[in-house]
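STRUCTURE REQUEST FORM
Protein name: Cobyric acid synthase
Source organism: Thermomonospora umbrina
Requested output: structure tokens
Priority: standard
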Amino acid sequence: MSGALLVAGTTSDAGKSVLTAGLCRWLVRQGVKVAPFKAQNMSLNSMVTLDGAEIGRAQVMQAQAARIEPTADMNPILLKPGSDRRSQVVVLGRPVADVDALEYRAHKDRLREVALASLDRLRAEYDVVVCEGAGSPAEINLRAGDIANMGLARAAGLPVLVVGDIDRGGVFAALYGTVGLLEPADQALIAGFVINKFRGAVELLEPGLRMLQGLTGRPTLGVLPWLDGLQLDVEDSLGLDVPLPGMLDPHGADTLRVAVVRLPRISNFTDIDALTCEPGVSVRYVTTPRELADADLVVLPGSRATVSDLGWLRERGLAERIVRRAREGLPVLGICGGYQMLAEEIVDEVESGVGRVEGLGLLPVRVEFAADKTLRRPTGSAYGHDVRAYEIHHGVATVGEGAEPFLDGCRSGAVWGTTWHGALENDGFRRAFLREVAGAAGRDFVPAPDVEFGALREARLDALGDLVERHLDTDAVRRLIEDGPPAGLPLVAPGGPGP
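Status: completed
Returned output:
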């Protein structure tokens, strides 16, 4: 098998990332050498490749589904919002600019060439490349400069599957409307539909599928059922609205309650995924001081806007409550941006440009933002266990006296801080850390000795492969990959404006 395919969606969070990962796992199990690709990704969840490039975390997960090492070519353009109007532009794994939406337009022609060159390199190295779109291909206000959806499909001649989320309602209108808003040359590449997150009897859906095909001339190639527990490296905070497995049954003396502060610019919240897999750990995201009342551990996660989010903590009254509980000996963990907030002083002329800011003062640390971003994959040890992690930050922390070393950060009393993302995915370290937290919080909680996060992730990726194999017309998908878009697909009225 040889070729490529684009998975587009009616909306963000429709299931593009999950279907792309499922296709990668299904194909690699068929003996196909496959790679994922997303030309342009807007996400605050990212990771570092072995050669020090920063790419979207979803593409790392999809590479794991394909059983290959991720590279910068799999996500050549990454946009990291720092406010409602400005984003850091990361190209082939390195930050190159900080722009607003209008300024970004000036970069589009060059970035289109970068994206197409990355796709060409992947297609030369792999049998199949499964591409993921961004947002919706029917965002007609953005079509002229599009490099992630129909702009990519047109340039590379890719057949397109459109995924719709039936759990939100209105899926038939969303699928029909998506095609209808596209100009004829774009419509010619839309080869079929996939309905995602279906609950119930498929027989009740079939009349609608037949009518949709009659209206559009395009088949629905699969109806994927709702499956709990498949939250895999979501791209943005929309995914935080889905209940976490560890949110269940938060009561009992042997339950460890973890409250993760949902910062406005929260980043790399995938750090928390490993905690949700631990039996007896209840995890929830919080935005008010009241929600911290019964927490055994408060986590301040990463942030793309450390100083701004620190100000938000103070405005909400969360800062005062976190400081009070830390001084009472109750555990607090800060990761990357959250660690920086725990410092005595932050000097930031780079990210926010505000200069000196007083931190929460819970760790004897001074943070100064550097122009160059630190991107690396460190290794170390804590509690007698090896730890592998990754770093993505501009802030450089200098630790003063009175603190113990902790994963390139420090600890003081029941407050821990580290620049390392992904540390909690290391099973031995995670269990030892949770035992320490439980002791400080006065809980009887004992971590399960046999939870392996890597094995759980593999099982989830296999479940996605099974989902594709059992519920998708894989013969039709093979034909699309090998032969490209079918000829003679009908035009769906009204048709959209040209680019």
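Reviewer notes: The radius of gyration is 23 Å. The chain has 15 helices and 27 strands.
Form closed.
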